[in-house]
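Fig. S4 source data, part A: sequence.
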Amino acid sequence: MVTDQIAEVIFVGIPGPTHHYGGLSADNVASSLNRGMVSNPKQAALQVLDLLRLLLSLGVAAAVLPPQLRPHLPLLRQHFGGDDETVIRQAALVSPGLLEKTSSAAAMWTANSATVTPLPDSSDDRLHITAANLFTNVHRRIEAEDTYRVLRAIFKGVPACVVHPPLSAAMGLCDEGAANHMRLSPGHCARGLNVFVYGADGGARDPQFARQTLSASQAVQSQHRIPNSATLFVRQNPGMIRAGVFHNDVIAVSNEHVLLVHEKAYEGGYKDLDRISQAYHMLHPYTDPLIIVISEDELSVEEAVHTYFFNSQIVTRPDGGMTLIAPAEVGLLYEGIAAKLMDRIRRDPDSPIDDICTIDLRQSMQNGGGPACLRLRVAMGQAQLDVMGRSVNVMAGDAQLSALEEVITRHYPDQLTAQDLGNPELYRCSRVVLAEFSEILKLPLL
């Protein structure tokens, strides 16, 4: 397989019909602040289709990851018996909190679905994908097996590709996927420096809400056959985890050789940024990464967390320039300080980021996930893409997105509260949606 034919595909997650504001992650500021609000699942899904259309308009290859069936009856059946309707009604009456967790549509945040290593980075010249176990939160943990099953279906038969099951959390391997992994390289087809960011190493200093363990990151490195020379492990700043930086992608974002990062992101501060620069230079002696450091004076951690400044997507267009896709909140909160900062980066002649696009993803944002949370980046060779395209229909295109929009418009509810989750009709709606998505995407979803 020729590595210079590798291109990046951005997989984007579609919210399901049970999208609601349950405040299920105590360490996620937006999720906690908006608990109990009335959600709009239809609008949530249509906003994500707008994101996919934006990516296509920029010339960026994009693909769809479908929602999962909710509520998650296997977990409810550990507590309640009877047919589907009885189980749901009993849960709503006896354990509404559990019903909220099992109804979570958080699988839409596909940055948590897996960690990906393209073939230039692996010593066995294969594309490796490990489904994340998301063990630290019950409402995310229930995603892992279905994510693994769907990823296997998507990449079935793709040459030089292996999809690994979730790591065993029983061994202390808590893995949150690509939200804590960055790949820095001169281009998608070149060998990359894999920066694994973790919050806990099993020591006394581990913050209460740390999600990614060092041992999990090390296990993924080993499983993906990434050489030590192309790997760096960096510890999150414990204080930032306590401030709401539950994943690295809340405080840093990268694309090819560019890293946009807050000065307080890592425990070692600027020393860790120097380590990243030096490790990159060892891999690519004649090039350097562009590390754009945002200081606390320019944008406080609080402002970064609330605007999701760093949870933007940076994508490379076919003309070689880069576009930063930011949530609308960067211009709406704190008198637009984040938007002004982005514009300054755009105007910098040394920055390859020469275009800024803002998009309304408020339904996702109010539940604690922005543009970068919604995407999983998979660099693939043309032969791999060809095989995938013949077996499934996940690559985004006008006809496919129109078909998905028709299903969403016809079936998704316009508003949803926690009390609505106890209506078995919502579960039946989810089954109908997945059945129709299954036909469109050519994926076994039920």
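Fig. S4 source data, part B ends here. The chain has 17 helices and 15 strands.
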